[in-house]
Each structure stands twice: as structure tokens, then as C-alpha cells.
């Protein structure tokens, strides 16, 4: 084997990994390197092998051949739980344990590595505040009493709690409404900037990939079609399949982003023109030339003033 | 009903206590088997499915069959009852626990894997708590079922509320039946509520509680079991009711008067004759009083060569010796069988002493009969033909209502058992079965081969009762125990002293 023993600048390296289910090859001889501190996004159609690839990194899935390195060490050569304690994991459904409070959920990994309850509480309180949940109100709640977006915020806190080297996220926001999705996208961006933790993020939303990724890997039928920076992929797609995937997608913000950041009014008396959340900002701007306000998604009233303040901030 | 409750307070409370003990211990043992088994098998689906089938099949075995199979191995009393109940309780607990553990959302399991949690953390902090509601519903189903089924313990002298139900059925006494059934239903409801309340405790507290409780319970049972296993003593048993209990006490007194060194243990209230007989075959019981008629009609059914009491006794004695090597000692004087009775006034007015006397005037008289007596071929049907009875009117009523009807002179004739304490209570005159229509039921001690070998000296002591105790004596003693609520032991001892059978 030619694997290099010193892979220090790679947070994760997949080396010719392969996985077959029921005689069907799901991941074919895949090699990939993710840099330390990188926000790495894996996109592709449903069934293309994204989840399988991701799970090979924390050994939820065992590759048939090839090797996986995390921080330069072959993961097959180290104790399973030691590896997993260093890797955060966020699932599509938040998968919070319904029999535990927000605190207990967020502290599972801290518990497992033997951090005292007091220290754990401090850490969780800080993180909850950072994801926009007031610790006093949320610490002792049960998952039942949380909205989808709140659950996913707790899921992120749980993944971050033990200060992992790496966080794996599998379509974490795809079950959320567009506003919450945008809010959480912004949140994860901020967190990534603050902590510089390596993140591998799976999605099949190309727009999300373009907004978040430092680099994007495009998967199709168990193979990588292209790996590159967002603008590279949009401007120079490797082949027609990649082009088809990203056609018409820009990383330009939509109205949802504006609403997500709170630039709207709840007051809604009077007659307004209506717009959907996924409309572009330029459509909104055109309408605001003639009207003083536009009603988005039947509930958010966006005025000229809101628009201008948003543009000034971003 | 209230009166009965008050009079029997002591017996009811102790039966209730024993019933609760039987139920809790059985469900706890079943839980301690079924829950770990489900945990063990939760990751081995194929074996798990097979276990589901097995526990289901166990449930379909009739309780009588299970008890019958168990007697040769573990004997009689509490232990086989608990084993049978545990077998029944396994299924609902295993099924629910298994379902609870295996139906947990796969994403939650994946998350617990991905966070590198330890085996015990995953089990005690995640899987078991998530399965807990289902586990508790299994426990509740098991508990309700076991409380209902625990009445079967009475069949093998295991005590509990079943004793009332059996006694009620046997004596056709609806009040006793009602007490047994109502209390067992109430218990089921109360326990179901208690379990609901317990289901909010943590897994840790529950485990600790269960283990402590079981250690105590099994220790207690083991002690009882050990005691019954001590071989040197003689075990005297008896069926349900006051009469067998009085006789058992007489046997004990007579044996111990002659041989104070012999230890005697009494096991009253066997609800089922064939189980008692099996216990005798398996040396779990050494001596019990049995009726000649029962031997030839129920245990080894065969045609009676005659209705002459002495001949029936000889026939029974031979059968018992041939089949099981048992020794059937000399019978007592009285018989316990069906008879017809009238009130004193009627007896006087019509000069009634025998059933033949009654036949002559039967068209002027009405009767109230127990339903069983009326419908059985060896009951009223045959009797009517044998004597040519032609009663004016026949009512079929509840046993307790018969005496009301007699008092009000709505009827004049009724059926009774010849040792029925009501004969004394209601001042009835029993008419002699002068044509010997009813097969004779004479009581005598039945001994197994083991006791004949180890303690042959008791035969002489027991034979002191041969030819003793008239029907009137027995009626009187039954009256003292069932109506006046004297202790069977006291009544037995008094009688023996009075007849100079005891010093
Ligand atoms: N445990 C399994 N057993 C059998 N086949 C599996 C298993 N897990 C995944 N597969 C198959 O492997 C292929 C890739 O699955 P994977 O979950 O990696 O896709 P994905 O890219 O994450 O898709 P999606 O976007 O729908 O989540 C699919 O065809 C799937 O049916
Ligand atoms: Mg997937």
C-alpha cells in the first residue's frame, strides 16, 4: 500500500475505498482528501452514495477495501470509541433521545469521555447561547417541546460539545422549512468561522452546497464526478451531468435569507403584492421600485427600508 | 355478605395476603427471566422470533396440565403454583420487552453508535428507558393475568383467593364465590394502577427494587420448600372444607398422642381431588381422608358390585392396593352422600322416617332441589324411579334459598348432604335411604406405601376412629366449625376427648 504515514494537513483522507451492498457497488474506488478546517460539501442525487461515504469516516459503515485516515491515522487501527468521541455527527432527523433533556442530550459525548457534570453544563450553556437558545429556558426541556429548528440546533450543540476534530453532517437541514433552513445555514457558517472545525456536509440541495462549501464534491452512482471550489464547479463543470445539476443555481441569496435574518415586519394591513420565499432578491427589488412593501409567503411584510438595511449588512 | 366478610375476616385477609405474595413473586421472577432474555436476544432476531413462539406455546398449555406435570418434581403447595404462574407471565413480558427494545427508531440507535457510547450506557440510558413504557404494559398484562390465574393455586393446596372460589363452587355457595372473584378483580385493578405509577421511576431504581424484592421472596419460598422436603415427618392433607380439616386434626392428635416423637404437618384445602391423589402417589402427601364412593366413582371409576357399605369399602380397598399399593384403613361410621330431608313439623305430621315413607305421601308435598342434584342420574332422576316418588311441585333453587322456602312452608322436602351443618342449623330431619339407592360414601384414612414402611406404627393410632363418628356427630362438628366459627383443631380435640380416644 502506498498510503502516506504523514497526512497532517488532511483532516480526512479516503484512499481507494469501496463498498458493495447485495452485489451492487455503492461506492466505487473513491479517493478524497479534506483539508483541516475546511467546510467540505458532498452533493449528489439520491442514492449516489453520499451517506455511505460519510459513514465510512466514523465507521458506521465498514469499507470493503481501501483505507480511511482521520488526522493522519488509519481509523481501522484505533479503538472505535476513541475515534467516534473525536467526530461530531448530525443527522437529518435531529435524533435527540426523547427520554433525555436538552442538557443530557447535548452532554452524551462529554459524559462518555468523563467530563464532570459541572464542566459539561458550562460548555453546553455557552454553546446553546451561541446557537441562539437561551440556556435558562432550554436546558431542562425535553425534545418533545422543541420545534424542528430548535431540535437541530441542539443536535449541532451535541456534535460540537466535545470539541471534535471533525463534524459529519448528513442533510441536517433538509427537513426544515425554508426560513429555518436559511437561519441554520447562516448559523453553521458562523460556527465554522469561529471554531475552524473541519466539517463534511452532505446535501442534495445544490444551492445550499454553493452557499456553504469551501469545496464541493459532486457524487454520482458511487463515483466522484468533480471536486472543486463552488465557482469552479458552476463555471467549469467537468461534464454535462454536473452542469445539469447546477444549472440555474447561484449562491446568490434569495428572499428567504433576508427573512431569515429578520428583515421583515409582521404588520399586514392593506393590499400588497405577493411573492414566494424562493424568489430572487432582484425580483423583490423590481417590485419595491413601484410598491412600498411586498408580502412574502403570506406572512412576512418586507418594506423598502428592510431591503435597504439587509443590503447594507450583506 | 357483609356478615360473611366480618366472620371470615381473618381467613380472607390471610388468603388475600397469600394471593398477593404469589402474584408479585411470580411476576417478578418472570420479569427477571424475560427481560434479560429479551435484552440478550434483541440483536439476534432469528432466535428472538423463535423465543416469541415458544413463550406463546407455553401459554396455550392448560394450567391443570402444567400443575399435573409439576407435582412429581416439585410437589404441592406454593412452589408448583409459582412455577406455573411464572410460565404464564413470561409471554406478555418477553413479547413487550422484545418489541420495546427492537422497535426503537433506527436513527436514535445510529446516533448512539456514532457518539461512541459504551455498551452499558446504550442499554441502561437509552434502550431500556425507551422501551420502558412497553415493558410496563407487558408487566401489567402479566400481573392482571397472574392474579386471575393464581386462583389455580387452590387446586394444589397453594392457598390464596382461589380457596374461596373452589369452596364456593363445591358448596354451591355464591357468596364465597363472589368474595373470591371480587377480591381477585379488585387486586388486578389496584396492581395495574400501582404498576402505572411505578413506570415513572428510573431504570436503576426499578432494577434495584426488583432484585431486592426477589431475593427476599425466593428466600422465603426456598425456606418453605426446604421444610416440606424434610423426609422424616408425616404429611396429612385434606380436601376443601371443614369436614376434612376436622378429620386431619383428629389424625394428627391420635398419632401424636401415641408417638410424640413423630412430626406431623397438615396441608388443608386441596381444591382438586385428583391433584391430591397425585400428591399421595408422589409421596408429597402421606395420609388423607378419602371416601369409598369417591374412589370407585371418580378416582378409578367402576361398577359397584353392591350398595352395601362394607362391600363397597372392600372393593375400594382392593382397587387402591392393586393400583398404587396404598393402604385404606377401616372406615368411620358416618357417610357423606346425598339424602332427602324434611322439616320437623312435616316429619311429625306425616310420620316420615325413610324415603319409602315419603313416597307414600309424596303427591301432597313440594320440594326445592339444588340444580345438580335434580339433573344428575344418580341424583333425583334415579331416586324418583327407585322409590316411585311423585312430588306435587319441584323448584330448582339456590342452596341458600332452599331453607327460606322450607321455613315459609312453600316447600317441605329438600336435598342435603348427610353431614351438612345446615341439618342442625335448620332443624331438618334426614330420611333414611332404606332401599340403598345412593352409593355409600364412607370416609377412611388413605395411606401411601412410603408411610406404611417408615411409620407403620401410626396404623393402630388411626384405626381408633374405625366405626366411630356418627352422621349426627359430624353434622354437629361441621356446625361448630362453619357456623359457630370454632377452630377445626379445637373441635377435633374436644370430640376425641369426649369419646375417650385421647387421654
Ligand atoms: N444498509 C444497506 N443495505 C443495502 N443497501 C444499502 C444500504 N445502505 C445504503 N444502501 C444502498 O446504497 C445506495 C447508496 O445509498 P446512500 O444512502 O449512500 O445514498 P445517498 O446518496 O445518501 O442518498 P440520499 O440522498 O437519498 O440520502 C442506495 O442505492 C441504497 O439503496
Ligand atoms: Mg443519504
UniProtKB/TrEMBL annotation, chain A:
Residues 12-246 form the ABC transporter domain. InterPro entries: AAA+_ATPase, ABC_transporter-like_ATP-bd, ABC_transporter-like_CS, P-loop_NTPase. Keywords: ATP-binding, Nucleotide-binding, Transport. It is an enzyme of class 7 (translocase). GO terms for molecular function: ABC-type quaternary ammonium compound transporting activity; ATP binding; ATP hydrolysis activity. The keyword Nucleotide-binding applies. Its EC number is 7.6.2.9. It comes from the Bacteria. Signal peptide: none annotated. Pfam families: ABC_tran. PANTHER family: OSMOPROTECTANT IMPORT ATP-BINDING PROTEIN OSMV. Belongs to the ABC transporter superfamily. This is ABC-type quaternary amine transporter. It comes from Weissella minor.
Amino acid at each position: 500500500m502506498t498510503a502516506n504515514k504523514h497526512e497532517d494537513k488532511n483532516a480526512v483522507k479516503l484512499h481507494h475505498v469501496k463498498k458493495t451492498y447485495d452485489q451492487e457497488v455503492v461506492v466505487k474506488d473513491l479517493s478524497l482528501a479534506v483539508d483541516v478546517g475546511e467546510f467540505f460539501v458532498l452533493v449528489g442525487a439520491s442514492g449516489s452514495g453520499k451517506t455511505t461515504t460519510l459513514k465510512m469516516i466514523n465507521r458506521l459503515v465498514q469499507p470493503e477495501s481501501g483505507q480511511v485516515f482521520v488526522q493522519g491515522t488509519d481509523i481501522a487501527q484505533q479503538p472505535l470509541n476513541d475515534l467516534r468521541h473525536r467526530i461530531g455527527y448530525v443527522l437529518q432527523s435531529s435524533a435527540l433521545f426523547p427520554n433525555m433533556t436538552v442538557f443530557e442530550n447535548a452532554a452524551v459525548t462529554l459524559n462518555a469521555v468523563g467530563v464532570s457534570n459541572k464542566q459539561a453544563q458550562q460548555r453546553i450553556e455557552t454553546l446553546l447561547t451561541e446557537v441562539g437558545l437561551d440556556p435558562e429556558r432550554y436546558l431542562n426541556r425535553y425534545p418533545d417541546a422543541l420545534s424542528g429548528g430548535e431540535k437541530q440546533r441542539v443536535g449541532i450543540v451535541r456534535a460540537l460539545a466535545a470539541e471534535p476534530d471533525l463534524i459529519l453532517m448528513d442533510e441536517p437541514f433538509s427537513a426544515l422549512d425554508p426560513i429555518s433552513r436559511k437561519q441554520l445555514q447562516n448559523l453553521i457558517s458562523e460556527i465554522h468561522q469561529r471554531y475552524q472545525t473541519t466539517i463534511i456536509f452532505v446535501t442534495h440541495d445544490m444551492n445550499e452546497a454553493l452557499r456553504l462549501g469551501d469545496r464541493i464534491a459532486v457524487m454520482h452512482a458511487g463515483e466522484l464526478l468533480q471536486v472543486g471550489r463552488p465557482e469552479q464547479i458552476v463555471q467549469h463543470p467537468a461534464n454535462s451531468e454536473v452542469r445539469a445539476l447546477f444549472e440555474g443555481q447561484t449562491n446568490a441569496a434569495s428572499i428567504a435569507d433576508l427573512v431569515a435574518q429578520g428583515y421583515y415586519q409582521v404588520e399586514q394591513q392593506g393590499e400588497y403584492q405577493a411573492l414566494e420565499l424562493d424568489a430572487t432578491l432582484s425580483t423583490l427589488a423590481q417590485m419595491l421600485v413601484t410598491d412600498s412593501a411586498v408580502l412574502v409567503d403570506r406572512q412576512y411584510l418586507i418594506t423598502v427600508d428592510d431591503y435597504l438595511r439587509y443590503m447594507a449588512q450583506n | 355478605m357483609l356478615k360473611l366478610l366480618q366472620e371470615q375476616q381473618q381467613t380472607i385477609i390471610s388468603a388475600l395476603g397469600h394471593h398477593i405474595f404469589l402474584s408479585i413473586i411470580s411476576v417478578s421472577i418472570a420479569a427477571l427471566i424475560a427481560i434479560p432474555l429479551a435484552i440478550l436476544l434483541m440483536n439476534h432476531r432469528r432466535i428472538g422470533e423463535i423465543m416469541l413462539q415458544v413463550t406463546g406455546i407455553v401459554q396455550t398449555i392448560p394450567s391443570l396440565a402444567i400443575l399435573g406435570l409439576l407435582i412429581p418434581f416439585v410437589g404441592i403447595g406454593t412452589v408448583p403454583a409459582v412455577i406455573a404462574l411464572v410460565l404464564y407471565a413470561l409471554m406478555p413480558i418477553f413479547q413487550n420487552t422484545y418489541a420495546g427494545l427492537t422497535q426503537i427508531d433506527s436513527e436514535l440507535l445510529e446516533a448512539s453508535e456514532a457518539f461512541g457510547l459504551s455498551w452499558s450506557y446504550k442499554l441502561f440510558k437509552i434502550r431500556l428507558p425507551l422501551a420502558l413504557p412497553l415493558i410496563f404494559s407487558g408487566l401489567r398484562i402479566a400481573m392482571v393475568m397472574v392474579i386471575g390465574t393464581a386462583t389455580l393455586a387452590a387446586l394444589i393446596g397453594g392457598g390464596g383467593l382461589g380457596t374461596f372460589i373452589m369452596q364456593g363452587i363445591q358448596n354451591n355457595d355464591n357468596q364465597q364465590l363472589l368474595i373470591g372473584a371480587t377480591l381477585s378483580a379488585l387486586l388486578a385493578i389496584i396492581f395495574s394502577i400501582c404498576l402505572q405509577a411505578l413506570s415513572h421511576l428510573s431504570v436503576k431504581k426499578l432494577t434495584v427494587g426488583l432484585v431486592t424484592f426477589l431475593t427476599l421472596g425466593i428466600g422465603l419460598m426456598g425456606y418453605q420448600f426446604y421444610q416440606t422436603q424434610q423426609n422424616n415427618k408425616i404429611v396429612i392433607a385434606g380436601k376443601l372444607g371443614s369436614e376434612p380439616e376436622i378429620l386431619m386434626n383428629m389424625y394428627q392428635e391420635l398419632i401424636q398422642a401415641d408417638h410424640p416423637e413423630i412430626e406431623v404437618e397438615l396441608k388443608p384445602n386441596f381444591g382438586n381431588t385428583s391433584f391430591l391423589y397425585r400428591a399421595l402417589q408422589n409421596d408429597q402427601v402421606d395420609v388423607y381422608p378419602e371416601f369409598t364412593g369417591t374412589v370407585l366413582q371418580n378416582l378409578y371409576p367402576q361398577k359397584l358390585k353392591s350398595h352395601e357399605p362394607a362391600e363397597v369399602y372392600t372393593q375400594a380397598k382392593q382397587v387402591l392396593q392393586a393400583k398404587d399399593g396404598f393402604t385404606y384403613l377401616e372406615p368411620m361410621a358416618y357417610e357423606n352422600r346425598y339424602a332427602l330431608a324434611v322439616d320437623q313439623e312435616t316429619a311429625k305430621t306425616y310420620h316420615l322416617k325413610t324415603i319409602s315413607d315419603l313416597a307414600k305421601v309424596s303427591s301432597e308435598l313440594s320440594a326445592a332441589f339444588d340444580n345438580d342434584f335434580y339433573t344428575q342420574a344418580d341424583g333425583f332422576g334415579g331416586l324418583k324411579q327407585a322409590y316411585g316418588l311423585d312430588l306435587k311441585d319441584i323448584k330448582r333453587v339456590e342452596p341458600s334459598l332452599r331453607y327460606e322456602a322450607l321455613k315459609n312452608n312453600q316447600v317441605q322436602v329438600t336435598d342435603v348432604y348427610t353431614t351438612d351443618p345446615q341439618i342442625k342449623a335448620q332443624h331438618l330431619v334426614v330420611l333414611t335411604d332404606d332401599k340403598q339407592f345412593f352409593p355409600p360414601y364412607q370416609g377412611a384414612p388413605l395411606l401411601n406405601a412410603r408411610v406404611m414402611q417408615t411409620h407403620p406404627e401410626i396404623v393402630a393410632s388411626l384405626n381408633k376412629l374405625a366405626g366411630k363418628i356418627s352422621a349426627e356427630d359430624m353434622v354437629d362438628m361441621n356446625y361448630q366449625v362453619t357456623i359457630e366459627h370454632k377452630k377445626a383443631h379445637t373441635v377435633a380435640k374436644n370430640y376425641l376427648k369426649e369419646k375417650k380416644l385421647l387421654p
